[in-house]
Design a protein that fits this description.
Structural class: alpha/beta
Largest sheet: 5 strands, parallel
Distance between the termini: 29 Å
Strand content: 5-15%
Strand order of the largest sheet: 3-2-1-4-5
Shape: globular
């Protein structure tokens, strides 16, 4: 119940992160957030707790099913943009073909990757979290073997924003 209070007590944004966050908020305007966590289903990377890669046609079908849910959300609110977050660059590339989709810049990183590349490697993860929290509504899309991520829910608690899981 006090997540946002304690989060803000424990963490403060660096000047660099704050500037990037504020720049993107100004650029994006009002938006909703949609998250989709595929793990290793569509073959971007090997996930520690993944269930394995799907066959090619199932990958395409899954991507199209998720894109259809994004399109349905857009039809309800055609006046605002949709921030799309995912652990899959393959999916994000497909989603970015939609004119109403926005995304934070940077490299997708995974917590179980022991990469010590530094700030740039992890920046997108923090920006995504803050941008999700800033959305007017927050959604997690889930179907089949997709992961029920707690990330967008935690972000919703940061600024007490409405959160909904859409299972289809």
């Amino acid at each position: 119940y006090n997540y946002s209070i304690y989060f803000n007590e424990l963490f403060s944004l660096s000047n660099r992160l704050r500037q990037k966050y504020e720049q993107l908020c100004n650029q994006f305007g009002t938006y909703i957030s949609v998250s989709a966590r595929f793990l290793d289903l569509i073959g971007d990377f090997k996930e520690t707790f993944g269930q394995g890669e799907l066959p090619e046609q199932e990958k395409k079908d899954l991507i199209n099913k998720v894109l259809m849910q994004i399109h349905k959300l857009h039809q309800k609110r055609p006046d605002i943009k949709i921030l799309v977050n995912s652990d899959s660059h393959i999916f994000l590339n497909a989603a970015n073909s939609l004119p109403y989709v926005i995304e934070s810049p940077g490299t997708i990183s995974h917590l179980d990757t022991c990469d010590t590349s530094g700030y740039d490697f992890n920046e997108k993860t923090f920006l995504d979290f803050l941008l999700i929290a800033n959305a007017s509504r927050i959604y997690l899309l889930k179907t089949g073997k997709m992961h029920k991520s707690g990330y967008p829910f935690a972000a919703s608690l940061l600024q007490n924003k409405p959160f909904q899981i859409i299972e289809f």
